[in-house]
Specification:
The complex is a heterodimer. By secondary structure, chain A is α/β, with parallel strands linked by helices. Chain A has five domains: 236 residues, Rossmann fold (3-Layer(aba) Sandwich), CATH 3.40.50; 124 residues, HUPs (Rossmann fold, 3-Layer(aba) Sandwich); 108 residues, no CATH class; 184 residues, Beta-Lactamase, CATH 3.30.450.40; 152 residues, Heat Shock Protein 90, CATH 3.30.565. In chain A, 51% of the residues lie in helices and 16% in strands. Chain A has 30 helices and 24 strands. In chain A, the strands form six sheets. Chain A has a five-stranded parallel beta sheet, with helices on both faces. Chain A has a five-stranded parallel beta sheet with strand order 10-9-8-11-12, sandwiched between helices. In chain B, helix 1 links the parallel strand 1 and strand 2. By secondary structure, chain B is α/β, with parallel strands linked by helices. Classes of the chains: A alpha/beta, B alpha/beta. Chains A and B meet through helix 25, helix 26, strand 18, helix 27 and helix 29 of A and helix 1, helix 8 and strand 11 of B.
Chain lengths: 896, 225
């Protein structure tokens, strides 16, 4: 044994434990589901659910009753009393008012916990989901906890067992997977005697009318005992499964039996029983199970309905937790055994049907017999086909109705025989009658090729009859003189039947192959055109052009929040489906599980987990159903389109970011060269003037005055250029903030030092209210804000003015106020001072920075880029205040 | 004292030359990075004034190349007000920077500081540092403020010694983090900020009117010279 594995045994696996904890409610996003589970109606599930809800409601939980069937019983009504109840939705279904659980209202209301009775309920047509358990899934997905109730006979895998026991079939079932995925199962159990007493006392709701007899049958003591046993066992199995998970997480090996079960599935009604049986077997031995469908030659000849049934059966297997395998095979038994042997299956489940007499007579074995004869080391379970008829599976209509169903084809067969006869008639005296057999044969082959097996058989029989009537002497009678013609007729009939059926099958194959080829060609064309198209619109148009003629549908595509192709859709019902698909990224609409009454089929376009839009297909012929094969093609088409959209989007993103970075580079270069070209001469001029001023003792007085004025203007120009460049950087959106945590006083200290030379005799006072938290800012830019505001204050105060800086905290912001004791702002201009190039001409000295009006606009740009606010106002005691706020750094605590 | 000016604008060179010769500095001139390197090797200047926008080589690359073989003080002249440029230049090895347009007075002050650093670096290792009422005994690892003992944590002490090694010189955040916490610890700007505040408190240094530690917003800190 590998020492590593030995070491690991018995040690908790942290990943599995974590997964368990997460599935245990650590997950915030999904709500928790609790099912009150009982053996039959009347055990008190609703009562228990309401009692618990009341308790939670009293503890302050936000509980809402979504829907509870009280059937007018006073005990139930008393429990509902005082709990908030969500109003039901009234649906008008063919003139009948049906009340249903209002899913949208529940999602809008978003209670913490909602009570939804009768988990297995089937919603009225026109609801969003056909089944209530799907409503519950959506509630859970939206983070709402749900309480619900369920009877054992509504569990998919137990449905047939209960039906066999009680003789009552229920169509309303809940998949076992959702039952097993529930966070909590509360088994509500009372002894059968007590239940019967309650029933007698009228405390159990029993539907009236036709169901009364069924109910009488249902509530027999023996039945109730059996049902109770089934419910207890099912609940116990679930507890076992949970224990296994826990054990596995704690490193204790699962108590697996090492079984692996394979069930053979076909188009027959037995298959659904086989699947349910296998599911129960698998649960008991905790074995993985697979459903196998063999795609033999016969698959090609199956009617579309039978194929759909195969798909239904396979879907049922998936719903019950099995895995689906499809194999293409010629020899069934050998393929199955080979597959089972290679994949380590230990058990095989299959149906057994009595062989027709002619097969038994010729000693031919059925598949089950062959398997039993050949399987070595495989446990084989067979179920007899004739045990119980499942009324939920529609029976195949008898063959003859197929004949009636296509009268035209059979008429054509008769016509073909008539034509053959007429063609031969002029020559019947010249040529040996046997030669005409070939003429009829040709007719049969043509009929078989064009119209299939039924008309071919008809043509064969008619051919023999008309051959006898018209060509064999005596003419115009079915008698014949030469007795050897009896053999001729027999051989002719046999040959034409064989040739006819072979031809019919061959042409069917050809047709199917062509159909497959059409599909492949369609997909190929679509992907070729999509890859040639540029941009989402072009791709959408291409897709619509490919799909519309091929399936005779209207194609609509939505992407990026708008419709990109197809006729505009304004039917609110259809838009509702569209909205749901966009939100839930699942297929919906026509013939699906969600909003099946819509006229279009809506497929989400997703690629690499990105949501790219929705494809809708509406058949032009409103009654046409999409086959499951077509649905498969649509899903492939949707993924092709999604892939193309993804490429388009990435292409557009790349292009946009390339253009953006080019632009940014250009702007940077422009700003840099502008800085250089403007500042270099200013530096030189400033240097020259200051050199000259150093020699002022040697210069005439007028020259010194001029130079001093020039120096002043130069300084002003320098400041203006600096501000202009800064403003350009801010307004071009190129301001890259270099965020760092700072104490605002540090920045203010640096700013005060920077304007030291300008302030002259003015006093700068600072007031700090308490301890200030750090702010996350671009230090250099905020320093610029403070410098600009201080310069502004200096410009508007007298030489002995007082400028005060106030720092304080206000909730999650730090507020800085710079007040001066100057003349203040002209009333009504408080907001305008931050406009670009705003100067207050009424005041002696302007409120802009050195007359350019850019300083305050720069402050505004910088503060707003930090997510802060800046505003100005006059002080009640005179002078102006400029105030700005900055968001506090959230990760750092308060600091002195 | 010889100062090398590497600047492609002739007018700026002339202005710098006029300012510097008035203060009795000997001036060498180069218009390109290539000429600059030749001048550096041949004439061994005491200080370099470097324009970042040279025609033949990026100024930052020039600093890094020179730093491989020379410790000559470099003061960067730049027209751009981008803090990132200044930080890069300082971390490449420049000693200081000036943003155009600058006043002659400011230029001369920076030159003086840089030359003094160079002289001190060349001299014997400093044992006692004393300035503005702050006194450090670097061998005994003790600190006094206005004659009173100051107790610093090891981190605060390292931070202070890093700053006083070069009074007046800007140290970038990364350089300080590197000096205090060692290499590869450049992502904790707020630790630096917090320890700086603590150090300031112990040195009774008000950030609003600092006496010792000056903030260079967006760049780093500098010890008051």
């Amino acid at each position: 044994m590998n020492p590593d594995t030995k070491h690991n045994e018995g040690r908790p696996d942290p990943d599995k434990l974590l997964a368990l904890v997460t599935s245990d409610g650590g997950e915030d996003a999904r709500g928790r589901l609790k099912i009150f589970f009982g053996a039959s109606a009347g055990v008190g599930k609703t009562f228990a659910m309401l009692s618990e809800a009341r308790r939670l409601h009293k503890d302050g939980r936000d509980v809402e009753i979504g829907i509870v069937e009280h059937h007018g019983r006073p005990e139930t009504l008393a429990l509902i009393e005082g709990l908030p109840v969500l109003p039901c939705k009234v649906i008008d279904h063919r003139g009948v008012q049906v009340t249903e659980f209002d899913l949208d209202a529940a999602l809008a209301r978003r209670p913490s916990l909602i009570l939804v009775d009768e988990y297995a309920h089937t919603n009225a047509p026109g609801s969003r989901h056909p089944k209530r358990w799907q409503d519950v899934e959506e509630l859970l997905d939206n983070g709402i906890d749900v309480f619900t109730t369920l009877n054992v006979q509504h569990l998919e895998s137990l449905n047939d067992v209960v039906a066999k026991l009680t003789g009552v079939w229920v169509k309303e079932t809940v998949p076992d997977t959702v039952f097993d995925a529930a966070d909590e199962i509360a088994l509500i159990d009372i002894p059968p005697d007590e239940l019967l007493q309650r029933l007698a006392a009228g405390k159990v709701y029993v539907a009236d009318g036709a169901h009364q007899r069924a109910a009488d049958n249902f509530f027999k003591k023996a039945n109730l005992g059996r049902l109770r046993e089934i419910a207890l066992r099912r609940a116990a199995e679930r507890v076992d499964a949970q224990n296994d998970q826990l054990n596995a997480a704690h490193g204790q090996s699962e108590v697996a039996t090492g079984d692996k079960i394979l069930v053979l599935v076909g188009a027959d009604s037995l298959s659904s029983r086989l699947i349910r049986h296998t599911k129960r077997m698998a649960d008991r031995s905790r074995a993985p199970w697979f459903a196998l469908y063999l795609q033999t030659d016969r698959h090609e000849t199956l009617s579309p309905k039978a194929r759909l049934r195969v798909e239904h059966n396979l879907r049922l297997a998936e719903k019950l937790g099995g895995r689906v395998v499809r194999l293409n095979a010629g020899a069934a038994a050998a393929t199955i055994l080979d597959y089972a042997g290679r994949n380590g299956f230990t058990r095989l489940v299959l149906g057994h049907s009595r062989q027709p007499w002619w097969r038994r007579a010729t000693g031919q074995q059925g598949l089950s017999q062959k398997l039993i004869a050949q399987a070595a080391g495989l446990e084989i379970t067979t179920l007899n086909a004739d045990a119980v008829a499942d009324p939920t599976v529609e029976r195949e209509p008898p063959r003859w109705s197929a004949l009636v169903a296509r009268p035209r084809d059979h008429l054509m067969a008769v016509l073909a025989v008539a034509v053959c006869t007429l063609m031969g008639l002029p020559f019947r005296h010249l040529i040996d009658p046997d030669s005409f057999i070939m003429l009829y044969m040709t007719g049969v082959v043509i009929v078989a090729a064009r119209f299939g097996i039924g008309p071919a058989v008809l043509a064969s029989v008619l051919s023999v009859a008309t051959f006898n009537w018209f060509y064999i002497e005596p003419y115009y009678s079915f008698t014949f003189d030469n007795i050897s013609y009896a053999v001729t007729f027999a051989v002719m009939l046999a040959t034409s039947l064989i040739v006819g059926s072979l031809t019919a099958r061959l042409s069917l194959h050809v047709r199917l192959a062509r159909q497959g080829e059409t599909e492949t060609r369609l997909l190929y064309d679509l992907s070729r055109h999509l890859s040639a198209a540029r941009g989402v619109e072009a791709m959408a148009t291409v897709a619509a052009r490919c799909l519309e003629p091929a399936f005779d549908v209207e194609v609509r595509l939505w992407s990026g929040g708008r419709q990109v192709t197809g006729p505009a859709e304004d039917d609110p019902r259809e838009l509702g489906v569209l909205h749901w698909v966009m939100h839930n990224h699942q297929i919906a609409g026509r013939h699906t599980d969600t909003l099946p009454s819509a006229s279009g089929l809506y497929l989400p376009l997703t690629a690499e987990a990105a949501d790219l839009g929705v494809l809708s297909l509406t058949p032009r012929d409103r009654v046409r159903q999409f086959t499951s094969a077509e649905q498969l093609v649509f899903e492939t088409v949707a993924s092709l389109i999604a892939g193309a959209f993804q490429r388009a989007r990435q292409g557009a993103d790349a292009e946009a970011s390339r253009v953006e970075s080019e632009n940014e580079k250009l702007r940077n270069v422009l700003l840099a060269s502008l800085s250089h070209d403007l500042k270099t001469p200013l530096t030189v001029m400033g240097g020259a003037v200051s050199s000259l001023l150093k020699m002022r003792k040697k210069l005439p007085r007028e020259a010194v005055d001029e130079l001093t004025a020039l120096w002043g203007q130069l300084t002003r120009l320098q400041k203006f250029v600096s501000n202009l460049l800064r403003m350009a950087a801010i307004t071009s959106g190129q301001l890259k903030l270099n965020f760092e945590p700072y104490l605002i006083q540090e920045i203010a200290g640096a700013a005060i030092q920077r304007i030291e030379a300008q302030k002259g005799a003015r006093q700068i006072r600072t007031v700090t209210a308490g301890q200030l938290p750090m702010v996350t800012i671009d230090g250099a830019l905020i320093e610029q804000v403070l410098i600009n505001l201080l310069e502004n204050a200096i410009a508007h105060t007298t030489a002995d003015g007082i400028i005060t800086l106030n720092f304080e905290t206000d909730a999650d912001r730090v507020r800085v106020r710079i007040s001066d004791d100057g003349p203040g702002l002209k009333p009504g201009t408080e907001d305008q001072v931050f406009d670009k190039f705003h100067t207050d001409n009424d005041l002696k000295s302007d409120r802009g920075n050195s007359g350019t009006g850019l300083g305050l606009a720069i402050c505004k740009g910088i503060v707003e880029a930090h997510g802060g606010l800046i505003y100005a106002k006059n002080n009640p005691t005179g002078g102006a205040s400029f105030i700005f706020t900055l968001p506090v750094a959230n990760t750092i605590g308060r600091s002195a | 004292m010889k100062i090398l000016i590497i600047e492609d604008e002739g007018d700026i060179r002339r202005y710098l030359r006029a300012t510097l010769t008035a203060q009795d500095y000997a001036v060498l001139e180069a218009a390109t990075a290539k000429e600059g390197v030749q001048n550096l090797t041949l004439n061994q200047p005491d200080l370099v004034l470097l324009d970042l926008g040279l025609p033949d080589q990026d100024g930052q690359d020039f600093i890094r190349a020179v730093r491989e073989w020379s410790q000559v003080p470099i003061i960067v002249l730049s027209a751009r007000e981008q803090e990132a440029d200044k930080i890069e230049a300082l971390e490449s090895g420049a000693d200081d920077y000036l943003t155009k347009p600058f006043a002659p007075r400011e230029l001369l002050a920076r030159i003086k500081v840089a030359l003094r650093h160079a002289a001190r670096d060349a001299g014997p290792r400093m044992e006692i540092f004393e300035r503005n009422g702050l006194r450090l005994d670097l061998s005994a690892r003790r600190v006094w403020l206005d004659g009173e003992d100051v107790h610093l944590t090891p981190i605060e002490y390292r931070l202070l010694t890093a700053l006083i090694q070069h009074p007046g010189k800007v140290l970038t955040h990364a350089q300080l983090l590197n000096a205090v916490w060692g290499r590869r610890s450049t992502e904790q700007n707020h630790y630096l900020r917090i320890h700086t505040q603590h150090l300031r408190e112990k040195l009774k240094d008000d950030p609003l009117s600092p006496r010792f530690i000056l903030t260079e917003p967006g760049i780093g800190y500098r010890f008051a010279d």
